[in-house]
Design a protein that fits this description.
With 204 residues, the protein is of the alpha/beta class. The protein has one domain: Alpha-Beta Complex (Maf protein), CATH 3.90.950.10. Strands 1, 2, 3, 4, 5, 6 and 7 form a seven-stranded mixed β-sheet that branches. A hairpin with a 2-residue loop joins strand 3 and strand 4. Helix 3 runs antiparallel to helix 4. The longest helix is centred in the first third of the chain and has 17 residues. The radius of gyration is 17 Å and the shape is globular. It starts with a strand and ends in a 19-residue tail after the last helix.
């Protein structure tokens, strides 16, 4: 089975892959994201994903292993937003986002040996018109400080998202349909990444 190495510390990305039958190794890149500068949110997400992927891939001595780097950026009215620096920033951002819509861009970079593919998935997110008390309570949980855009769709923030247009995995931070296409470009069939021992029966 082909090794897949996830260059991300995101629990949501790891959980998404595991739920899809893929159990990757996790190696945190630890790169300085401030070195990438661009005003285009989609390009920024792709560049950051590429930076993370390459920083981990350089230490991988298995030429057949897949290294996956991802990064997400929220764009509203042409302005880009990563993780809020502090609670005050998260609060101000949510007051701006509520009742409005933005685009969540998730960049993906996959490397195998000396070959590399990069792409960005984008999904429109419609935010609920939450009140100040709800924002304060949400920010107090600390969750918004850990994620791009200051919100999640698979955690406490899920109730504050009215809807999306596009792949919901993109909002979590890793698009499974896009990742399937990227690994195929590098000669790996998605189903060959499935870990049979990690499968489970779902009796919903």
């Amino acid at each position: 089975m082909t090794r897949l190495i996830l260059a991300s510390q995101s629990p949501a990305r790891l959980a998404t892959l595991r739920a899809a039958g893929v159990d990757p190794e996790v190696v945190v890149s630890g790169v300085d994201e401030s070195q990438v500068r661009t005003h285009d949110a989609a390009n920024l997400a792709a560049a950051l994903a590429q930076l993370k992927c390459r920083s981990v891939a350089v230490d991988v001595d298995d030429p057949d292993a897949l290294v996956v780097g991802c990064d997400s950026v929220l764009a509203i009215d042409g302005e880009t937003f990563g993780k809020p620096a502090d609670a005050a920033t998260a609060t101000a951002r949510w007051r701006r986002m509520r009742g409005r819509s933005g685009v969540l861009h998730s960049g993906h970079c996959v490397r195998r040996g000396d070959r590399e593919v990069v792409d960005t998935a984008s999904t429109i997110v419609h935010f609920a018109d939450v009140d100040d008390a709800e924002i304060a309570a949400y920010v107090a949980t600390g969750e918004p400080l850990q994620v791009a855009g200051g919100f999640t769709i698979d955690g406490l923030g899920g109730a504050f998202v009215r809807g999306i247009e596009g792949d919901h995995h993109t909002v979590v931070g890793i698009s499974l349909p896009m990742l399937r296409e990227l690994v195929a470009d590098l000669g790996v069939r998605w189903t060959d990444l499935w870990c049979t021992s990690g499968r489970h029966d779902d009796h919903r």
